[in-house]
Amino acid sequence: MSAFAKSLSPTLREIRIFCCQSSQASAGTRQFILSTYPVIKKHNPDLPVMIREASGTPARMFARFERGIEKHVELDDLSSSDVAASVARILNAS
């Protein structure tokens, strides 16, 4: 499931994930974080991965690349596998 975590773009500088710690809409994102974060950090130990949980926050992910290029994807109401597919699309679309 986390094959993309091993081959991230060298231009990727930061990943930020936002979600609600209790809403059903963020459940897939929370599951994605639990299953994928350790793999991402294992293969990319120097890459900043920030996870922010706040009540009522819609689930979304931001990726910052070289030269200040930033991309984001909305993750509300997605399953964990759909979140992984959306994140992979953004991270590999540098």
What's the count of strands?
4
Rg from Cα:
12 Å
Strand content: 25-35%
User: What is the rounded distance between the termini?
Assistant: 20 Å
Tell me the structural class: alpha+beta
Mean pLDDT rating: 90
Shape: globular
**Strand order in space, largest sheet:** 2-1-3-4
The helix tally amounts to 2
Major pleated sheet: 4 strands, mixed
Low-confidence stretches: none
Give the SSE order as H and E letters: EHEEEH
- Relative helix content: 25-40%
Walk me through this protein's architecture.
There is one protein chain. With 94 residues, this protein is α+β, with helices and mostly antiparallel strands. The protein has two helices and four strands, in the order E-H-E-E-E-H. A four-stranded mixed beta sheet has the order 2-1-3-4, with helices on one face. Helix 1 links the parallel strand 1 and strand 2 (49-53). The longest helix has 17 residues, at 27-43. It is globular. The two termini are 20 Å apart. The mean pLDDT is 90.
Summarize the entry for a quick read.
This protein has helices spanning about 25-45, 80-90, and strands at about 10-20, 50-55, 60-65, 70-75. By secondary structure, it is an alpha+beta fold.
